[in-house]
Structure formats: structure tokens, C-alpha cells
Amino acid sequence: MSSPGKISPIRDTSAVARAERGLVSIVVPVFNESANLPSLWSRLKPVLDGLDRAWETVFIDDGSRDDSLGILREIAAGEEGRVRVVELARNFGQHSAILAGFKQSRGDIVVTLDADLQNPPEEIPRLIAAIDEGNDVVGGWREERHDQAYRKYASRLHNRLTSLIVGVPMHDYGCMLRAYRRHIVDTVVDCDEKAAFVPALANSFAKRVAEIPVGHDDRASGQSKYNLFSLAKLSLNLITGFSLAPIQLLSMTGIGISMLAVTMAVVLLAHRLIYGPQEEGALWTLFAVLFFFIGMIFLALGLIGEYAGRIYIEVRRRPTYIVRAVHGVSDQPVDSDGD
């Protein structure tokens, strides 16, 4: 939340009103998806028109270097204020873009959707229906994923890790086709975390969480923005952002190793007293013990560094994102950021 005396430009002074009863907001982060955007909108708009309730769409251009922004502005120009385009100053990443969209949205229900068309927009009514049943968060579950094998295995490991850390078991934390109630969205925005993983953060605040199977298609155009390194980085952010378990595990490991070392010392002393000094194998044993302890020290330092790094990122108070302009409401630049 904003500190006393500090004005939050988007939340208090933008042209966007607060939550409207019954309004559905669709938040779509976009990064270099110009080839998919016309097809996305041609499929998304009929779905929204068929909802039988008011809707808005908030596209977030996350520093695209292709013609994505131009296409989005054309879409917004033809929709009489129902479509807004949040133009970020550079590429801040998917979850930061979603936070920017959350802050600009005003719907009672907020749905997130990727722009690559791998998750069909036709599934949106099912997510909204699950929210109407009383759930706070509804996630999509890609039962039959059309991805490479290594991505499936990495994602499966990531989902198990996330479920364990957050304490809310789900099959698919990586699917961005999700629906949220307004109070969950506002709470996530108010957290103002610099390395936020939105689905996990939202689930940690929700009373009722549901998951429904959704379709998953091959990417029609462009390349995935996530590789193995990105998934590993996301998992590391998740571990250090939601749990103290790794550093606590290191403490317990240190205690265990200390007890083991004392036991080994007693055994070696007893062996020496009973059998006398023996040189065979002693050198290799010492090397093995030394390498083990060196490895543990480096692991401990690495984890401590991760936690210290997160603290450093938070205390710098740099904005999570910077909005250059909002198109569709006003084409004038908006002085706002993700503080």
C-alpha cells in the first residue's frame, strides 16, 4: 500500500473508475505478438459479446519491438472505450505487465489471458461461471499440453514445487488463463512485490480456489517467451519469495552435519584406540569430507545471497513497471508507475 503522504497516480487520479458491479475485465499481456493479435481479437470479441454482461479489455504492451502496439491501438480506437492499451516504457516481464493491467482494470471479475492463442478465449465463460459459483480464484488446467517434452517435465516440477510452497495444490500454476474476484486483484496490487508470481500470490489470499480443465493449442506464430532458464529463475523467485524453508533446511542440515561430524570423531578415536593408527584410505576420506563441506558452504552462501538480493530489490523501491501512455481512454501520456 502507498505510504502516508504519497500519491498513487494510477489508483487515485487516473480516468479509470474503481470496480463496477458485474463488469468483466480481460487483462492480456502482449510482447511481440503482432502475428497473433488479429486472430486473438476476432475470437475474443464474440466471446465477450456473448457473455450477456458488461465487459472491458485491457491490453498491456510490454515493450514490444514489432507492430503489436499499433495493432492494439487500432483495436482500441474501434471499441468506444471498452478497450484500453497500457503502453509500458520497456519490457518488464509477464507478471509485471499483469500487475499493470490489474491496476488499470475496473471489473468485478478479472480474467487474465495470454496473447499467443495457446489458451482458447472460448474458455472464458467457463471461468466466469466458476467464479459465480462462489470461488475467489479459478485457474485453468492444461490437461493435454501441446508443448515440447522438456517444457512439460519442467512445468510439472514447477507446479509441484509451487503447490508445496503456497499450500494450495493445483495441477497448473503456469496457465495464465485464470479468473479472479476484485478483492483478490486489489490485494495482489497492494502487495507491490517486485518479483511477484501472480497466480501463487493470489492463491495465498483466496478462501476458495478452483481449477477447471481448459484447452491448449499449438502456438500459431512467434516464439515462447519462456525457456528452461526462465522457468528456473521463476522457480527460484517463487522459493525465496514465498518460503523460508530452504534457509531453514540449511540450518537443520548444519545441525545434522555437526552431529555427524561429532559421531565420526568419536568412531575414529575409538578405532584408533582399539586398532592403532592406520594410514590406508585416510587421505581420501579427508578429501571427501572436505569437498562435502565446501559444497555445503557454497550452497548456503548462494541461498543467503538470494534472500539478501530480494531484500535489496525491495528496499530500492524501484517501480515494478512504468506506464508510458494509456490508449483508448486518453492518448495523453500518463505519469504513473508500479510503486
Structural account:
With 339 residues, the protein is α/β, with parallel strands linked by helices. It has 2 domains: 254 residues, Spore Coat Polysaccharide Biosynthesis Protein SpsA, Chain A (Alpha-Beta Complex), CATH 3.90.550.10; 72 residues. Helices cover 49% and strands 17% of the residues. It has 11 helices and 9 strands. A 9-stranded mixed β-sheet has the order 7-5-6-4-1-2-3-8-9, with helices on both faces. Helix 2 links the parallel strand 1 and strand 2. Helix 6 packs parallel to helix 9 and helix 7 packs across helix 8. The longest helix is centred in the last third of the chain and has 35 residues. It is elongated and about 90 Å long. The chain starts with 8 loop residues before the first helix and ends with a strand. The N terminus is likely disordered.
Which helices and strands appear, and what pairs or packs with what?
Blueprint: H1 9-13, E1 20-30, H2 37-49, E2 55-61, H3 68-77, E3 83-88, H4 94-104, E4 107-112, H5 124-132, E5 137-142, H6 149-166, E6 178-181, H7 182-191, H8 198-205, E7 209-214, H9 228-242, H10 245-275, H11 282-316, E8 322-327, E9 333-337
Parallel strand pairs: 1-2, 1-4, 2-3, 5-7
Antiparallel strand pairs: 3-8, 4-6, 5-6, 8-9
Helix pairs in contact: 6-9, 7-8
In short:
With 339 residues, this protein is an alpha/beta fold. Helices cover 49% and strands 17% of the residues. Strands 7-5-6-4-1-2-3-8-9 form a nine-stranded mixed beta sheet, with helices on both faces.
